[in-house]
Amino acid sequence: MSPTTTGDGPVSSAAEAPATSAALRVTALSKSYGRTTVLRDITLDIQRGETLCLIGPSGSGKSTLLKCLNLLERPDAGEIRLGETCLTAPGADVDAARARIGMVFQHFNLFPHMSVERNVALALTSVKGMTREQARATARRHLDEVGLAAFARQRPSRLSGGQQQRVAIARALAMEPEVMLFDEATSALDPELVKDVLAVMRDLAQGGMTMAVVTHEMGFAQEAADRVAFMCDGRISEIDTPDRIFEGAQHPRLRQFLNQVL
Ligand SMILES: Nc1ncnc2c1ncn2[C@@H]1O[C@H](COP(=O)(O)OP(=O)(O)OP(=O)(O)O)[C@@H](O)[C@H]1O
Ligand SMILES: [Mg+2]
């Protein structure tokens, strides 16, 4: 199905790599809620295996951008491509596209009445069509990956917030997504629980997962990101390596933001 907008629009300076290596390609994306414009003409590529951290002040549009990327919100204009698939084309299979993108939110939303293992296995039977046995084995493997194999039979309420968030990560990973989106995955956690979740995210990044991570953890962005994008007033106003963002910030709003958070 051909997209309504052509692919020869403006390409950002961040899009130097060949088209084939972009896992996710966003072109001229805009979104408004009523009269409030939240995303303005965003063009962005995320390369395969890249970890992109999104930082910026409250209300700058970070969450809205992530929600547009997996079509939880419908953009008003622009194009989103996941590999070869145009997600914004008329008639695009939204459910199929979503199954290829994992999302982890601030609140983990586990089902309290199901075991940890069942929480992870649920979509594997209902969406991926696995048998219960296959789903259980896959769930165990991903719980092991986040260090929680021993908790498979427990209810989520028996786990700490950090452990529950790692279950939510395992649940997303079990779907074998091509891209993982994290929206402030550690913001609701007590400080001492943050580091285990960040360690899992760091392992994923090092293991070659393609990730877009909205975070207030500047240490994580500095160490784990390949690039950092600074969002401001619905635009990506800077995008560069962590070193250049954190040490060579030119943009006054970025400098002001970093002065507040570092
Ligand atoms: N469903 C909605 N309806 C109306 N306005 C919305 C909606 N969702 C977000 N907004 C507005 O869009 C703007 C961007 O919100 P968004 O949640 O994307 O910001 P953010 O950068 O994630 O901020 P934070 O760091 O506080 O999470 C804000 O002004 C917000 O009030
Ligand atoms: Mg947000």
From TrEMBL:
List residues of the ABC transporter domain.
24-258
The residue stretches assigned to a coiled coil in this entry are none
Q: Give the membrane topology.
A: Peripheral membrane protein
Compartment(s) where it occurs, according to its Swiss-Prot or TrEMBL record: Cell membrane
Origin: domain of life? Bacteria
Establish whether keyword ATP-binding is in the entry.
yes
InterPro entries (UniProt xref): AAA+_ATPase, ABC_ATPase_HisP-typ, ABC_transporter-like_ATP-bd, ABC_transporter-like_CS, MetN_ABC_transporter-like, P-loop_NTPase
The Gene Ontology terms for molecular function here are:
ATP binding
**Keyword terms, alphabetized:** Amino-acid transport, ATP-binding, Cell membrane, Membrane, Nucleotide-binding, Transport
Give the protein family: Belongs to the ABC transporter superfamily.
- Designated name of the protein: Amino acid ABC transporter ATP-binding protein
Q: Which organism is it from?
A: Streptomyces coeruleofuscus
